[in-house]
Structures are given as structure tokens and as C-alpha cells.
Specification:
Blueprint lengths: L2 H35 L3 E4 L3 H8 L6 E6 L2 E8 L5 E5 L1 H31 L12
Antiparallel strand pairs: 1-4, 2-3, 3-4
Helix pairs in contact: 1-3
Length: 131
């Protein structure tokens, strides 16, 4: 592989990774308000030890954690707030309800957009595929 191709491959990889990070950041910006609305408490990773422990959790995934006889639910967000959200079982149940409502609203929006597109009078542009 010559030098030019190596540069192309490196640029493509960096672009792909930064795009992925952007998408994860967007996902975090959608999830964080839902967690807060459900009553999860945000705890900043404000020390080297907390940052290291934050990295051990899967990002933006709810993880149960047993502390004595109680179960807590943790969500690591290394993208938007560099923090850990901590909630109880009741907070988790509220989060699930909020999340389902959010998904239903998104589905309704997408259906409305498809219906709007279908209602457009595209036939006035003539037959397609004859360029």
C-alpha cells in the first residue's frame, strides 16, 4: 500500500469514528433528559477514579447494580455530560414509560411525514427514469 492510500484509509477511519461519536453524542442528548425526568440522579465523573470506573460501564445502557439488599440502575454517559446516572427501580420504570412514549411519538411523526410525501402530486413532473 503506497503512502497516498494509507492517508486515505486513515482519513476514512477518523471520519467514521468522529461520525459515530457525533451520533452517540446525539443519542446521549436525547436520553439524558428522559433519565432526569424519570428521577435518575446525575453524578459527574469529577475525579480520575470516577472517570476510570465510568469507562468500565457500557455507554448509554441501563445496567442494574446491587448495593446491599437494594438494586439501583446505572447509566454511564461519557458523551454529553461525562457522568453517571443513578436511579431506583421506580425511576427505571418511569424511564421505560417515558422512552416508550418518545418512541411512539417518533413513529407518529415519521408516519405523518410519509403520508405528507405520499399526498404530494409527484405525477406533474412526468414519468420517472427517462433521463
Amino acid at each position: 500500500m503506497n503512502g497516498r492510500w494509507k492517508v486515505v484509509v486513515v482519513v476514512a477511519l477518523v471520519s467514521g469514528l468522529s461520525g459515530c461519536a457525533y451520533l452517540r453524542s446525539e443519542e446521549a442528548e436525547q436520553i439524558d433528559p428522559m433519565l432526569a425526568a424519570a428521577g435518575f440522579q446525575m453524578r459527574p465523573a469529577d475525579s480520575a477514579e470516577k472517570l476510570e470506573q465510568l469507562k468500565t460501564l457500557p455507554p448509554l445502557k441501563v445496567v442494574p447494580h446491587q448495593e446491599g439488599d437494594k438494586t439501583y440502575f446505572l447509566v454511564a454517559d461519557p458523551y454529553a455530560c461525562n457522568c453517571l446516572y443513578v436511579g431506583t427501580a421506580a425511576n427505571y420504570e418511569r424511564y421505560e414509560r417515558i422512552s416508550l412514549r418518545q418512541e411512539a411519538a417518533q413513529d407518529r411523526l415519521e408516519a405523518a411525514e410519509m403520508n405528507e410525501d405520499a399526498a404530494m402530486q409527484w405525477g406533474m413532473w412526468g414519468p420517472w427514469g427517462y433521463w
